[in-house]
Design brief:
By secondary structure, this protein is mainly beta. The chain has one domain. The strands form two sheets. Strands 5-4-3-6-7 form a five-stranded antiparallel sheet. A two-stranded antiparallel sheet has the order 1-2. The structure holds zinc ion. Zinc ion (ZN) binds next to loops.
């Protein structure tokens, strides 16, 4: 799913704790590509982005394209958002998906009614260009 960025987008935008570390992820998202960090020492993937590998502590990391396939690991249907800017979206699905590479990624499930979302459902990335600066990585049914 692709949306057209608008000047009217009023919801909170991502505020990465480490903008330099996560810049490759957001730059790729703008190009509608999903990339994840991989350790060049032990070859394992991880997510969220870190300064070092969480398995072997190597700092020799690289960004690699993800296969773009995932399954819903867990989810919650939000009826009362913590932030009022999301009220008009309710109900919506906040989820954790597991990519085929094994990493877990927080996201939202779009493109189907919330009552159709199931654990283990196959999903693929759905990039939403919400502003000219930010593209959000959500997932939709495969
Ligand atoms: Zn490692």
């Amino acid at each position: 799913m692709t949306t057209t960025p608008t000047a009217e987008y009023k919801k909170p935008l991502p505020r990465p704790a480490n903008p330099t570390l996560t810049k490759p992820f957001w730059d790729a998202a703008k190009e509608h590509r999903l990339i994840i960090p991989r350790c060049k020492n032990c070859s394992r993937y991880h997510f969220y982005p870190r300064e070092h590998c969480p398995f072997c502590f190597s700092m020799d990391l690289e960004w690699v394209p993800a296969a773009g396939k995932a399954r819903v690991y867990t989810y919650s249907v939000v009826h009362q958002p913590e932030n009022r800017n999301f009220t008009e979206d309710c109900p919506y699905v906040h989820a954790i998906v597991q990519l085929t590479e094994g990493v877990l990624m927080p996201t939202a499930i779009v493109g189907c009614p919330p009552e159709e979302v199931r654990v283990d459902m196959e999903v693929v990335p759905a990039f939403e260009d919400v502003t000219t600066e930010w593209t959000l990585v959500k997932f939709r049914p495969a």
